[in-house]
Design brief:
Layout: E1 8-11, E2 18-22, H1 32-44, E3 54-57, H2 79-93, E4 99-102, H3 112-118, E5 121-122, E6 127-131, E7 134-139, H4 149-158, H5 161-168, H6 172-192, H7 201-210, E8 215-218, E9 225-230, E10 233-237, E11 251-256, E12 259-264
Parallel strand pairs: 1-6, 2-3, 3-4, 4-5, 7-8, 8-10
Antiparallel strand pairs: 2-11, 6-7, 9-10, 11-12
The structure holds manganese (II) ion (MN).
Length: 269
C-alpha cells in the first residue's frame, strides 16, 4: 500500500503541450540499435517539438553496478564507455526539458552521482502526475508483481541499504561479474517458470485509490496494453524497447491534457 504522505506529486505546468513516458529500454552495449533509436529520440525531444517533460519509468539500463562505473579507467567492459555515452545523451536532453527517472529492477543502484552527471531528477517508487482532470500514478510496476515471491524476496533484500553498501564495497570488476551471474540466474528463473507473473490488478487498484489516481502508467511486464482500472480510468502498460525485434519495439507514450497515444519510432540501421 502506498504511503500517501510519501508520494511525490508533480503538477503539469500550464504551458505543457505533451510529455513522453517510456520504460524498459534495457540499454546495453550489446544492443547498439536500440541505444541509437533512444539517442535519436532524446536529441529531438524538446518543448519546441511538443515534448515538455520526459518520464523514464525504470529499467533504462539492462544493468547498473554503481555510479562509480562512470569513472572507470581503463574501460573494464564494453558497458563502461556505453554508459558514459548514455549519460552524455541524457545530460544534453536535460538542458532542454526536465527528465525524470524512476528506478527499475535492473538499474535500482543508480544514485546521486548519476543524477548530477545527467541533470535528471530521481523519482521515488510512486509518483503522481496531476494533469487537468487526470491524476496519473507512475511507477516501474515490479512491486505490484506480488505473486512472484522469489522476486519479491530479492527485491526486499536488494533495496536494503546494508545489501547495497556491501555490494558497492566490492571492486567494480567483481560487481560486473556478479551482475552477469545475477542476470543469468534471473534468466534461468524466468525460463523455468511455468507461468508469467503479471502485476496483481487489486494491488495496483488499491495503490491508485490510496493516492486518488484516476489512471496508472507502469512498465516492467513488457506487455503493453490499456487495461480498465475503474469505470473512468485505465492502467496503461508501457512497451519494452528492442530495435532488433520483428517488428521493432521502440514505442513511447505521448500524454497530453486529453489522454494518451502510443508513438512508434523507426529503427535506425
Ligand atoms: Mn523491470
Amino acid at each position: 500500500m502506498a504511503d500517501t504522505t510519501a508520494t511525490h506529486v508533480i503538477h503539469a505546468a500550464a504551458q505543457w503541450q505533451a510529455i513522453g513516458v517510456v520504460s524498459d529500454l534495457h540499454l546495453q552495449a550489446a544492443a547498439p540499435q536500440t541505444a541509437a533509436a533512444w539517442h535519436a529520440f532524446l536529441k529531438q525531444a524538446s518543448p519546441a517539438t511538443g515534448i515538455d517533460a520526459l518520464f523514464i519509468l525504470g529499467d533504462l539500463f539492462e544493468l547498473w553496478v554503481g555510479d562509480d562505473a562512470l569513472d572507470a579507467t581503463p574501460d573494464l567492459s564494453p558497458e563502461t564507455p556505453f554508459w558514459r555515452n548514455c549519460v552524455a545523451a541524457l545530460a544534453d536532453a536535460s538542458t532542454r526539458l526536465p527528465v525524470y527517472l524512476a528506478l527499475g529492477n535492473r538499474d535500482f543502484l543508480i544514485g546521486e552521482r548519476f543524477c548530477d552527471a545527467t541533470g535528471i531528477f530521481a523519482l521515488p517508487m510512486h509518483t503522481v502526475l496531476d494533469w487537468g482532470a487526470r491524476r496519473y500514478l507512475l511507477a516501474h510496476g515490479d512491486a505490484w508483481c506480488t505473486s512472484d515471491t522469489a522476486y519479491q524476496d530479492f527485491r526486499a533484500s536488494s533495496r536494503n541499504p546494508q545489501w547495497q553498501s556491501a555490494f558497492l564495497s566490492q571492486t567494480l570488476e567483481a560487481r560486473l561479474r556478479l551482475a552477469a551471474q545475477m542476470r543469468a540466474q534471473s534468466q534461468a528463473h524466468q525460463a523455468a517458470q511455468t507461468m508469467w507473473f503479471d502485476v496483481e490488478p487489486v494491488a495496483v487498484a488499491d495503490d491508485a485509490l490510496s493516492v486518488g489516481a484516476t489512471d496508472v502508467i507502469h512498465g516492467h511486464t513488457h506487455r503493453p496494453a490499456d487495461h480498465t482500472l475503474s469505470p473512468s480510468g485505465e492502467r496503461i502498460v508501457l512497451s519494452d524497447w528492442d530495435a532488433q525485434a520483428t517488428p521493432p519495439r521502440l514505442e513511447w507514450l505521448r500524454v497530453d491534457a486529453n489522454g494518451h497515444t502510443r508513438v512508434a519510432l523507426t529503427a535506425h540501421t
